[in-house]
Write a structure and sequence with these properties.
Mean pLDDT: 90
CATH class of the largest domain: Alpha Beta
Order of helices and strands: EEEHEEHEHHHEHEHEEHEHEEHEH
Shape: elongated
Strand content: 25-35%
CATH architecture of the largest domain: 3-Layer(aba) Sandwich
CATH topology of the largest domain: Rossmann fold
Radius of gyration: 23 Å
Strand order of the largest sheet: 6-7-8-3-9-10
């Protein structure tokens, strides 16, 4: 028996603009019902990747398929299969909440016999039942975000692309939005999401980290932390504190040093340092270390380390 095609398969995806390579031979696949995080700093190739995968941009090299449909050979065939919510809300401010949903239902070709039922489902899912007649222009960022999501899924897509959807909204709105994501995923929608927020990335089933057009790592959040950070995140109580951070930033084997409250947070990129060795080294710089504590690592630590290695690789 043939297995069902995956929601998304990408092989060697590459996009060049002249001499600049925006996406460099990226390969991965996404499983059904997965919340897949696609992460990286600005300029790493995330949005360019999504534009190619939505059939909006032709790749220089590589292939991609959505539920078995070739994205680049048959871009029109993938449109009913996907939803896309961009970084900027593509809503019509002069329309009400209901009118926006009705408009997008028409754009996506939702049959008239199903339109009311589908819009009612979305209004309930997004908690917008009491705001159907509200002008979109008057909605707060969090409510606009919910409406934009509703417009992106009005045609019940199997694969949903969310490009930094929580940028610029408050923490409460972000949490509500992620509740909506989990609910959709539990019902079978596959979610492909880019985000700058590492706390959000922790909630993805798997995350891919892009850096300067290349895919540097791909795994579950827990596996990424165990693979790349073997007790390599430390908090130092030291005096003077600012000088400690400055000195560590220049120290070989340290990927990053930053202030975390009244501690210096250190991400190591080698095993050359033990707590005693680092204490002695800093003492020689006139810095007193009162304690060094190994702390629970985060995805932010992982990505800082990977970005540091990427920079070293470029300089080599």
């Amino acid at each position: 028996m043939n297995s069902q095609p995956l929601p998304l398969e990408v092989n060697g995806l590459t996009k060049k603009f002249g001499d600049f390579t925006a996406v460099d031979h990226v390969t991965f696949s996404v499983q059904p019902g997965e919340v897949f995080g696609y992460l990286g700093p600005n300029g790493s190739g995330k949005t360019t990747s999504i534009r190619m995968l939505c059939g909006l941009l032709t790749p220089t090299e590589g292939t991609a398929s959505i539920l078995g449909v070739d994205v680049f050979k048959n871009p029109e065939q993938i449109k009913p299969l996907i939803g896309y919510m961009s970084q900027k809300f593509s809503l019509y401010d002069d329309l009400t909440v209901l009118e926006n949903l009705q408009f997008y239902a028409g754009v996506y070709g939702v049959p008239e016999s199903e339109e009311k039922k589908r819009i009612d489902e979305i209004l309930h899912l997004a908690g917008l039942e009491e705001r159907t007649s509200s002008p979109t222009l008057e909605l707060s960022g969090g409510w606009r975000q919910r409406l934009a999501l509703g417009c992106a899924i009005v045609h019940s897509p199997k694969l949903l692309f969310l490009d930094e959807p929580t940028s610029g909204v408050d923490p409460v709105a972000r949490r509500v939005f992620w509740d909506l994501i989990y609910e959709m995923a539990s019902k079978g929608t596959t979610i492909f999401i880019t985000t700058h927020y590492m706390d959000e990335a922790e909630h993805c089933n798997r995350v891919a980290f892009m850096y300067r057009s290349k895919l540097m790592a791909l795994d579950t959040p827990a596996s990424l932390k165990s693979t790349y950070l073997h007790g390599a995140a430390w908090d130092l109580a030291a005096n003077p504190l600012l000088e400690t951070v400055d000195e560590l930033t220049k120290t070989d084997g340290v990927a990053q040093a930053s202030l975390h409250g009244d501690r210096a947070h250190v991400i190591l990129d080698s095993t050359q340092w033990s707590p005693d060795q680092l204490t002695k080294y800093l003492a020689g710089k006139g810095i007193t270390v009162n304690s060094i504590e190994t702390v629970q690592s985060t995805l932010e630590d992982v990505f800082t380390l990977l970005a540091h290695r990427g920079k070293i690789g470029e300089a080599a």
